[in-house]
Write a structure and sequence with these properties.
By secondary structure, this protein is α+β, with helices and mostly antiparallel strands. It has helices spanning 7-27, 31-35, 38-52, 58-64, 66-74, 82-99, 161-167, 211-221, 285-289, 294-310; strands spanning 119-123, 129-134, 157-158, 177-179, 184-189, 194-196, 202-208, 226-231, 244-261, 267-277, 312-313, 324-328. The protein is globular. The protein starts with 6 loop residues before the first helix and ends in a 27-residue tail after the last strand.
Length: 355
């Protein structure tokens, strides 16, 4: 069916082109023979027909990143077949004509459409930091109280947990578990939370035995999948080099309570929950491990270059404004995310550290 593409469809195409297909083609020339099947080429032809029927504004182009995707295809060294290279160039010309040009389209990270839109970092008098997050129209934190992937894709990536909350995949930047008090819907892995499992699809979650056990156990008994996100502060070979990444759905397969020795000589009961990635209904973890891609890393560098200039005193913001959520980040020790700071657990080393 020939029709203009919706913003969600444009964004989906952009992600597939930028994050799935182009990286493969740039690394391995032989992959083009496997990728460009007849059905795939037919699908691409329909995409170009429909994208040419779409009217573009600068905001639509910026929010969907479709210009970046088309630039990848139009790159003669990108591995795309010549007919698609030519079509991508033609659509880029159309977009420039519709919008009056795409120079300077990126805008600021905190501007409308930017990766940190609606996320105001704040600081208390004692130096603790957090975020005042302006939710999208009609959204509440309860949006995250849903099982399943909620339409998020393996490899979706954010600059911070505040941006992930605003996207709707988690409900809190303070608690590493997204829960309505009954079951767990998502877990943000950071610090010492993760240990390797027995297989490539398994991971072991370490958390304090009390409240964490109560939240996770009902997901275990009711066989509910949880969304797993990993942050760059996670001490694990699976951690992203920057930001926060969605790695897919996991089931809690078993659990036990372990007695752990603390650094001060005391002991603490810790929940060790074995999670298994659901491999047959979602892309392989390797797709997530590609992130952050170079464009995302460039945003990360910009974020850290600019973030200190964006911080406001908590006294200077209206924390009671409708449609906002205030949350405080864990302390400087990322292990505080899990409530298990001070454990004398062996810390797995990353295969490589970000420069």
């Amino acid at each position: 069916m020939q029709r203009p593409l919706t913003p969600d469809e444009l964004l989906s195409w952009s992600k597939s082109i930028l994050e799935e297909w182009s990286p493969v083609l740039e690394v391995d020339d032989e992959s083009s023979h496997k990728l460009f099947t007849k059905s795939f080429c037919d699908e691409l032809r329909f995409f170009f027909i429909n994208v040419e029927l779409t009217s573009f504004s600068r905001a639509l182009v910026r929010d969907t990143r479709i210009h970046l995707a088309l630039e990848k295809i139009a790159d003669l060294g990108g591995g795309w077949p010549e007919p698609f290279v030519d079509r991508a160039g033609q659509v880029l010309d159309k977009i420039k004509q519709d919008t009056g040009g795409i120079d300077g389209l990126a805008g600021g990270l905190w501007d409308e459409g930017g990766s940190m839109e609606g996320c105001q970092e704040v600081m208390r008098e004692d130096g603790r930091r957090g975020y005042l997050i302006e939710l999208k129209v009609g959204q509440t934190v309860r949006k995250a109280f849903e099982t399943g992937d909620m339409g998020f894709r393996v490899g979706d990536w954010w600059l911070s947990t505040a941006a992930a909350l605003r996207a709707g995949i988690i409900s809190s930047i303070e608690d590493f578990i997204t829960t309505d008090g009954l079951i767990a819907y998502a877990v943000v892995m950071s610090g010492d939370l993760e240990r390797p499992g027995a297989t490539a699809n398994e991971t072991v979650l370490y958390a304090t035995e009390g409240a964490s056990r109560q939240k996770l156990m009902r997901s275990y008994t009711e066989h509910k999948a949880v969304r797993i996100l990993r942050t760059h502060t996670l001490r694990s070979p699976l951690a992203p080099t920057a930001g926060v990444r969605y790695d897919g759905l996991y089931m809690i397969r078993k659990w036990s309570v372990k007695l752990i020795e603390l650094a001060d000589g005391g002991t603490q009961n810790v929940l060790a929950a074995t999670l298994e990635r659901i491999a047959d209904v979602q892309p392989e973890l390797a797709q997530a491990l590609r992130h952050p891609v170079p464009e995302e890393l460039a945003e990360w560098v910009k974020f850290w270059d600019e973030k200190e200039n964006m911080v406001k005193s908590i006294a200077d913001v209206d924390t009671k404004r409708a449609g906002t959520v205030l949350g405080w980040l864990p302390g400087e020790d990322p292990r505080r995310d899990s409530g298990i700071a001070g454990m004398t657990l062996p810390i797995p080393r990353r295969a490589s550290q970000p420069s």
